[in-house]
Specification:
The protein has 267 residues and is α/β, with parallel strands linked by helices. It contains nine helices and seven strands; from the N terminus they run βαβαβαβαβααβααβα.
Length: 267
């Protein structure tokens, strides 16, 4: 679809990857609802950057773990935009809300992960589609490797939540195929200017060095703009036959084989 004049909601677009997605859509003339949870100033800054690119938008607050907030969020979209062409489910709680290994995690932490990803996407998609014309776009931002691996122990709840999110996109892709609405997952690799960039400097540097050493074939971590570009591609008319897919936007990191040391594989 030509993107000029379309209406998008990007959850968690006050900062990080969500902001990168909002800005890339705005550069194509999409009106973007900037959603935040607590950081109103950050949301205003995203909107200011949209406007600096000649775009238009709105700001919406909601806790996506709360069903009533999700309904309120889409009520506001209906009032301000009248319809929705692109729904990007990107928001994710702060690490403190869910980051705990499997033997210690509490039910509240588990629920925070599941509710913010699986429940928010289930309900968000059900409600969003009532505002969407045929041939609209729905995109979930996941971290798909965490749904099939088990090594990153404190990520257990989010890994399970992302696995459920990935599964939901496939089921919704089938349910909405008749309307030409595509439903896909974008799975970023480690991305700068996001939660990863806010880790202690030495941790962030170690992550960067790991990827630059070759575990990401493109030898760099991603940027929010990389993810925004991928979302923009999926929103274009030329992507209208791509649905139910997971697209890894990670510079090739997901095709690396962790069984053998890099030096042996590349020797
Ligand atoms: N960062 C990475 O390297 C990476 C890699 C793979 C996948 N991802 C995925 O990409 C997405 C964005 O990650 P990020 O690192 O860019 O995030 P981030 O910078 O930590 O930003 C999180 C966003 O979610 C919002 N949020 C937090 N709790 C919320 C809640 N309860 N309800 C509604 N919104 C809430 C925040 O709003 P406030 O600003 O108001 O707090 C903020 O806009 C996530 O789904 C993540 O799993 C990230």
């Amino acid at each position: 679809m030509p993107l000029q004049g379309k209406y998008a909601l990007v959850t968690g677009s006050s900062r990080g990857i969500g902001r990168g997605i909002a800005l890339k859509l705005a550069e194509r003339g999409v009106n973007v609802a900037v959603h935040y949870y607590t950081q109103a100033e950050a949301a205003k800054e995203t909107l200011a950057q949209i406007q600096a690119r000649g775009g238009k938008g709105a700001i919406i607050q909601a806790d996506v773990t709360r069903p009533e907030d999700i309904h309120r969020m889409f009520d506001q979209i209906k009032r301000e935009f009248g319809r929705l062409d692109i729904f990007v489910s990107n928001a994710r709680p702060e690490l403190a809300a869910f980051y705990r290994p499997p033997m210690d995690i509490t039910l509240d932490q588990w629920n925070s992960a599941i509710d913010s990803q699986a429940q928010a996407f289930l309900l968000g998609t059900q409600v969003a589609t009532s505002l969407m014309p045929d041939n609209s776009r729905i995109i979930a931002i996941s971290y798909s490797p965490s749904g099939r691996t088990g090594s990153w122990q404190p990520w257990v709840a989010m890994g399970a939540a992302k696995a459920a999110l990935d599964a939901l996109t496939r089921y919704f892709a089938v349910a909405l195929g008749r309307r030409g609405i595509t439903v896909n997952v974008i799975s970023p690799g480690a991305t700068d200017d996001s939660v990863v960039g806010r880790l202690p400097t030495e941790v962030f540097q170690a992550i960067k060095a790991w990827h630059e050493s070759g575990w990401t074939p493109m030898r760099r971590v991603g940027t929010p703009a990389d993810i925004g570009n991928a979302v923009t591609l999926l929103c274009m008319d030329e992507a209208s036959f791509i649905t139910g897919q997971t697209i890894h936007v990670d510079g090739g990191a997901s095709v690396m084989d962790p069984v053998f040391p890099l030096a042996i594989q590349q020797g």
